[in-house]
Amino acid sequence: MEKYTAEKYTRQIMLFGEEGQEKLRKATVFVIGAGGLGSPISTYLAVAGVGKIILADFDSVELSNLNRQFLHHEKDVGREKTTSAEEKLLSLNPEIKVETIKEKITAENAGSIVPPCDIIIDALDNFDTRHVLNRLAVERNIPLVHGAVSGYRGQATTVIPGKTPCLCCIFPTSFKKEVFPVLGTTPGVIGTIQANEAIKYLTGQGELLENRLLLWDGLSCSFSELKINRSENCPVCGVNKRK
Predict the structure, then answer these.
(1) Given pLDDT bands bounded at 50, 70 and 90, which one contains residue 243?
(2) For the whole prediction, is pTM greater than 0.90?
(3) How far, in Å, CA of 235 to CA of 169, rounded?
(4) Distance CA 135, CA 92 (A)
(5) Which of 105, 34, 98 has the alpha carbon at shortest distance from 71?
(6) 214 pLDDT more than 60
(7) How far apart are CA 76 and CA 74, in angstroms?
(8) What span, in angstroms and rounded, lies between the C-alpha atoms of 174 and 243?
(9) Is the distance from CB of 93 to CB of 12 less than 8 angstroms?
């Protein structure tokens, strides 16, 4: 590892060594969503030295985004989120690569749009697209880190295909898409947890949020957990899905 790079990552190399840092450098992470969750997720992946971040989002920056989507500034209003985010991430760490996808991912195009990667991170704001992403992750055997927020509350879990419940096991139906309230600190907490899960997975450190749904309540400043199980009849990952 070059001296400049090693010095930049000194504090985390103390945790997982140069071998772990090299794993991050060689990793490709697909983040879908460059908004409230995508901002802390991609920021912490970038400064940690993840070699390639592929960021997907089809929206443009709006003024109402700025209370939580800190990759975007007031001067970015009207710009594509992927363009704005790429600019900020490369300014934070010019050593990494950032690729962008400026299309809406649907059931019809997901197979051709979602690129090869080591892990997928859900930074979405709706369950319809989450279910599309979940099915693809299971089919391709790619770990998926889920996160969702509303108001002062948020949740996170890590899906390991074939080992843990998939999102369809936990949330078999989609929720109505609507504009929901959110305080900027909520996606800050959940997005940071998601980035932490990805870094742990890539470096082989610690225990992942497997078979657990982590719940955050910002009003009481408390975490709780729900034990979650695979559904044998899940249409996406269940053993009886074809019966």
Answers:
(1) very low
(2) yes
(3) 9
(4) 33
(5) 34
(6) yes
(7) 5
(8) 23
(9) no
